[in-house]
Amino acid sequence: QVQLVESGGGLVQAGGSLRLSCAASGSIFSINAMGWYRQAPGKQRELVAAITSGGSTNYADSVKGRFTISRDNAKNTVYLQMNSLKPEDTAVYYCNAGLDDYSGSYSRRRDYYGMDYWGKGTLVTVSS
Fold it and tell me: Residues with Cβ < 8 Å from 73, sequence gap 6 or more?
């Protein structure tokens, strides 16, 4: 089992920045890809950014150039630096840790790569 604890969410004005952190514990040796997904009210969960065990990254088009994902394997932690935030970035952000090394869409992860763990989520609210 793997436990994921997110932190760093909150309320920020448009144009501001936040840094999310996700600390993993438990059977961390089994983790490969890690990522951040988000779900806004009334919408489906979607990929924000993910990083493989080898360090390859994948971003949603809507956040490219504004968000940066990174991981510190020594601390078993993945980060999401979010800059130039927009009101449409408002959502609950979920940390994901996969036993696989898949860094793509949520729907594909859900349907084909079910061996993963999720955090409880952290709310990010961007005011206009």
Answer: none
Cα gap 54→121, rounded to integer Å: 25
| DSSP E strands, 8-110 | 10-13, 18-26, 34-39, 46-51, 57-59, 67-72, 77-82, 91-98
Residues 28, 30, 35: CA angle, nearest 5 degrees? 75
Q: Which residues contact 81 (CB under 8 A, 6 or more apart)?
A: 17, 19, 67, 68, 69, 70
> What pLDDT, in 10s, does the model give residues 58-85?
999 999 999 999 999 999 999 999 999 9
Supply the DSSP symbol for 30: G
